[in-house]
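Hypothesis: this fold can be encoded by more than one sequence.
Test: take the structure tokens below, design a sequence, compare later.
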């Protein structure tokens, strides 16, 4: 999926989630879907507000599944905070009284702020068996790096040369990973984290959105099917098919006149045996191009004299 198609998808998720929340404002899962969409659009302030409202709802709920959802909301709020300045962060250290009426998020208390996520650039790539996430930061030691794995999340904390801490959490991951086979290395210029896939599934993103199935869409052996979107780019050409069509057209093309006669002689020569070819060569050369015979027994035993067309006289060159 291209960047434009991806952005269009998340914008649609935002509009859909807002509409459903207007109809069902007490729904505890819709704020998570809305917050995830805003996060993928890199609108982190709107994302953290959506997650905070969802956290408030689940903390007032008595349902077991909502208590499990509370941890996810807290994790994503922390993740958003790493992308926000101190004044826009939302603190979740104090758990509100579940009997109290809902209140607006309190102003954040002054606390040490982790470095913004943009302070350390990261990239990722994958093979059928694993996913590697690379964080580009120089001169870090093993003691400066802390990597925490769960089956569906990854949290990386790096102490920077400035003294600040960079922290980034990925979760839920696109599919589960095998924690015991995950590892990381600290090099001179980068920190690499290798995640072992539990299934050989092609990841579309590092993280799975709330409306995607946990197993992913596409296995590594199956072709990816993309929805069709309008595009101004030229259509891809099948050059192999074009070459095959040209060859076919040439083969089917019918020649006329001398060209057709020459083609007939070429075909006869190409399919003839050795004696027939010798006869054709000898008769053509000795007759000055006026006789073409395929009978070697006839032309092999004597010189082939030239036979000019009717009404013409045969002369040797120079006469």
């Amino acid at each position: 999926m291209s960047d434009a198609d991806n952005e269009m998808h998340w914008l649609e998720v935002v509009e859909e989630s807002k509409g459903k929340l207007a109809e069902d404002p007490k729904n505890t899962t819709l704020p998570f879907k809305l917050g995830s969409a805003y996060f993928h659009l890199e609108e982190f302030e709107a994302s953290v507000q959506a997650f905070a409202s969802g956290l408030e709802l689940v903390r007032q709920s008595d349902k077991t599944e909502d208590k499990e959802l509370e941890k996810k909301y807290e994790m994503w709020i922390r993740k958003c905070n790493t992308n926000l300045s101190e004044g826009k962060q939302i603190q979740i250290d104090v758990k509100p009284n579940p009997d109290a009426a809902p209140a607006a998020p309190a102003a954040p208390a002054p606390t040490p702020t982790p470095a913004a996520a943009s302070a350390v650039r990261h990239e990722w790539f994958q093979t059928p068996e694993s996913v590697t996430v690379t964080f580009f930061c120089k001169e870090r030691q093993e003691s400066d790096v802390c990597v925490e794995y769960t089956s569906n999340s990854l949290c990386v904390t790096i102490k920077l040369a400035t003294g600040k801490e960079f922290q980034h959490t990925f979760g839920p991951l696109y599919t589960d990973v095998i924690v015991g086979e995950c590892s990381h290395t600290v090099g001179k210029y980068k920190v690499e984290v290798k995640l072992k896939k539990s299934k050989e599934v092609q990841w579309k993103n590092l993280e799975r959105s709330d409306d995607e199935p946990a197993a992913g869409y596409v296995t590594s052996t199956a072709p990816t099917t993309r929805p069709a979107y309008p595009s101004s780019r030229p259509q891809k050409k099948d050059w192999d098919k074009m070459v095959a069509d040209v060859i076919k057209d040439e083969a089917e093309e019918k020649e006329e006149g001398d060209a057709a006669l020459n083609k007939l002689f070429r075909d006869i020569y190409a399919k003839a045996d050795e004696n027939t070819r010798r006869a054709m060569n000898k008769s053509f050369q000795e007759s000055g191009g006026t006789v073409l015979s395929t009978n070697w027994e006839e032309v092999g035993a004597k010189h082939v004299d030239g036979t000019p067309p009717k009404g013409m006289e045969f002369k040797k060159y120079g006469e």
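The longest strand covers residues 130-136. The first helix runs from residue 3 to 23.
Hypothesis status: open.
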